[in-house]
Amino acid sequence: MSLLSRWFGPKYNDGQLLAYAQTAVAEDPLVSGVGNVMINSERGVITITGRVQRTSEKDRIEGAIRSALRATGIKFERIVNDLQVG
Question: Helix or strand or coil: residue 83?
């Protein structure tokens, strides 16, 4: 790996971020199978979209993803929670 690719190469592993985020939601018994939730990761920004029934589900999904990513120590920029309630 050259010095330039270390400085200017990708900072985030979007594939890993997406895998950890999806696993976190799937393994959380309070939110797995809840609504129509889609997760995407681009340049370290995890975006959660779709529809859930309650605000508590929306918050729980974001919290599960944030906790999982922090526990693994994987680097990410931020989480954008665009889930719709209703």
Answer: strand
Domain tally, the chain: 1
Half-sphere exposure (CA, 13 Å, Cβ side) for 11?
A: 9
Q: What is the CATH number of the domain that holds 61?
A: 3.30.1340
pTM reported for the whole predicted model: 0.84
Q: Is residue 46 part of a domain?
A: yes
Q: Which domain holds residue 38?
A: 12-85
Whether 5 is covered by a domain: the verdict is no
CB burial of residue 5 (10 Å; 0-12, 13-18, 19+): exposed
What one-character-per-residue DSSP string does 32-76 give?
TT-SEEEEEEETTEEEEEEEES-HHHHHHHHHHHHHHHHHHT---
- What is the tens place of the pLDDT at every residue in 51-78? 999 999 999 999 999 999 999 999 999 9
